[in-house]
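In full, the data:

***
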Amino acid sequence: MNDFVEKMMFDPKWYHYIIIILLSPLSLVYGLFMYLRRLFVEKKSFDIPIVSIGNLVVGGSGKTPFVIALASRYAEVAVISRGYGRKSKGLVEVSQKGTLLCSVEESGDEAMLMATSLPNASVIVSEDRTKAIVKAIDKGAKIIVLDDGFNRVDIEKFEILLEPKAIKNYFPFPAGAFREFWFMNVNADIVVKEEEDFVRKVTLEDLSAKMLLLTAISNPQRLDTYLPPEVVGKIYLPDHAYFDENHLKKKMQEYGAETLLVTEKDRVKMQDFKLPLSKMKLKLEIKEEILMQIDMYIKTYREKGPQ
C-alpha cells in the first residue's frame, strides 16, 4: 500500500489517475485551506537572520544535505528542525556546537545526521519552531537555519525553496505530494531547482561483492541511479523507520549479502549494530550565485535589521 501511494504521488501511471481524480476535491479543499492560512496568519519577527530551507513536495527534495551544506559555511549557527520520526516530544537539544546531547531515537534520523555532520553548529528539534528559535538565541546563536520551514508561515524568514528536477503529479495532498498549490512557490525569495541550481554528488564507500540495499527514505526509487551492479536485493521501509538488527541479519543470509548498503540518514540509526556496512554518501554542489544571495541577506540583515 505504501509503495502504491508513493508511486501515485511521485511517478503516477494511468491507473493511479482513477484514485487521483476521486481525491481531487479533497486536494482542492486542502490547497485552499493552506492558501488562506498563508494569507491570514501573522508572522513573528526575531532579531536574528533566519534562513529557511523548504519544499512544496513531501520528502526527497534534498533539504537535509542542503541544510548541512549551508550551515557548514557559518559560525555560531543553529539548525532547527521538527525532528521527524523521533520517539520524543517537545524541545530537545540534539547537539551544542558539535557535542551530541541525545540519542537518535530522541532526535530523529535527519536531525542526528545534521548534528554529526556539523561539528561547529548546534541542532535543536521541536514541534514548536518559535520556542526552538528562542532557545537557540538564548544559547548564543547568531544565525538560524530552519529545516523544512516553508510551511511555517508564522515566522518571518528568508525563504529558500527546493524543487525536484521532475514533477509528474501537481496535485496537493491527498491526491498528490504537494503540501500547497504548486504556484505558492511565488512566496519564496529563491527557488532552487535540482540539476540547475544544485546537483547531487554520490560517493560509495566500503563496497563488497554482494550488497543488500537497506533504506527508510521517501521515494526510495530515486537511489536506483546511483546503485552499483553488486546490489543483490533491496529492502524499502517507510520514511524514518527504525531497524531490527536480527531481522537484517536474516535478510542478509537470505540474499547471500556480504554487506548492507545504506545512506548516511539510515546509518545514524545503526550506530550500535554489529553488521558490515557499505555506505552511500550524498553531498550537494550548490551554485555560487545562490550562496552569495544568502550571504547578502545575512549581511544586510545584520547591518540594517529586519526589512
